[in-house]
From TrEMBL:
The keyword Transcription regulation appears for this protein: yes
Stored Gene3D superfamilies: Homeodomain-like, Regulatory factor, effector binding domain
GO molecular function: DNA-binding transcription factor activity; sequence-specific DNA binding
InterPro entries associated with the record: AraC_E-bd, Cass2, Homeodomain-like_sf, HTH_AraC, HTH_AraC-typ_CS, MarA-like, Reg_factor_effector_dom_sf, Tscrpt_reg_AraC-type_HTH
Superkingdom per UniProt: Bacteria
Keywords: DNA-binding, Transcription, Transcription regulation
HTH araC/xylS-type domain ranges (all copies): 8-106
Family matches, as SMART domains: AraC_E_bind, HTH_ARAC
Official protein name in the record: AraC family transcriptional regulator
Amino acid sequence: MVWLTSLQKAITYMESHLTTTFSMDELARSSGFSSFHFQRTFHLLTGITVREYVRRRRLTLAAEELQRTTYKVIDIALKYGYETPEAFTKAFRRQHGLTPMQVRKSQGKITSYYPLTIEVQLKGAEPMNYQMTKQDTFQVIGRLTTMPNNEAIPALWDELNRDGTTERLALLNNTPIKGVLGVCLPHKEGMQYMIGVAYEGDVPEGFEAIQVPQAEWAVFEVIGAMPHAMRHTWQRIYKEWLPSSQYELAHTVEFELYTDDDPMTDTCYSEIWLPVK
């Protein structure tokens, strides 16, 4: 349950700083997570980024103040982090479909987002198939990209699938870890993500290499069409498996493994590999 308590601490921190500025590092420290793992966990569980959550909450509170106070629009804009009325109005209209003045005059409905509460449901009806395995350090080769959060990952897969890179990588896969990997690594600027394969030997031209450290891994079976099946399994890991298991996340390198099954079918087989302790 440690991760749950940490995540709730971070949400409380965000809620208490909606009218002040704070960095992602400060937010992560409030939870005990690294910045990378906090942002990744938050996005996996909620489907939105931390910044999007904060933006929605600030614009919700701003709309409520417009309805119940006589404060100037510019003062409310500044209070919630917008330096100009134009920037505030643009963001406000994107969320609410109305201008601040229309809301003040009660000329339409606002779209409100309320504080997030983490709830864990322990279920037993739907099984989770996984195995524990110990793995020595191994090399992954592929394309390595630094990105601020998870949002850019689908576009990277689209690009490398389109130009044939994933096919070339699959042919180079020469270890017992069979499949194309999506590897997440902590990084000071957010996260690094590599699309690659486990490979023994000199790094082929055009690719980069990383070393995945020795670890004990929880390897979860994922059955179903992408991306729904993968996201559903991630959520079950955090909501069901972690709270009821004896393990904690090691917060190092983690990856998803994709086989050559058709990703659009209900029988597609994939895996999630999580380092644990």
